[in-house]
Amino acid sequence: MHEAYADAPDLRREMHQVLALEAERDGRRAGRGTGPPADATAAERARLLRRAALMDRLATAAPGPGPVAAAAETAGQLVRHDRRHPGLVAGPHHPDAITLARSSRLYVRQEYAAWTAAGRPGT
Q: Of 79, 69, 67, 66, nearest to 109 (Cα)?
């Protein structure tokens, strides 16, 4: 597994947590707090990042057309979010940086590692 995910929860636990975040966002489950998060944009970014990282990890563990396509799609969602909110980019490279142009999944890995190092803000 990529070193960006060295401190990530195991896949089963992370999948459960990401699904819980999705349910909270969709209103199918009550959130942890009693109201909206203090910074809804940062919370949304953390959700997108965690989902993209989970899909990247799944595609790395079982590469196939479906998992790879899902990883690329969720990575693209994070890239689009970060283009609209460049102040939330945590790593050294912006999503459009030439060094990361060949795969948005590389951007997800960079951002997950930086997010983890920063103490997982937005969660």
A: 79
Pick left, alpha or beta for residue 122 (phi over 0 → left; psi -120 to 50 → alpha; otherwise beta): left
Output the CA–CA distances (angstroms, integers) from residue 111 to 32, 45, 48, 86, 93, in the order listed.
24, 11, 11, 12, 9
CA dihedral over 81, 87, 91, 95, signed as positive or negative:
positive
H runs (alpha helix) in the chain: 11-26, 40-61, 65-84, 104-117
pTM, full prediction: 0.86
Tell me the C-alpha distance between 79 and 17, whole Å.
22
Q: Smallest Cα–Cα separation from 78: which of 67, 94, 66?
A: 94
**pLDDT tens digits, 9-60:** 999 999 999 998 888 877 776 655 444 555 889 999 999 999 999 999 999 9
The Cα 80–Cα 108 span in angstroms is 12
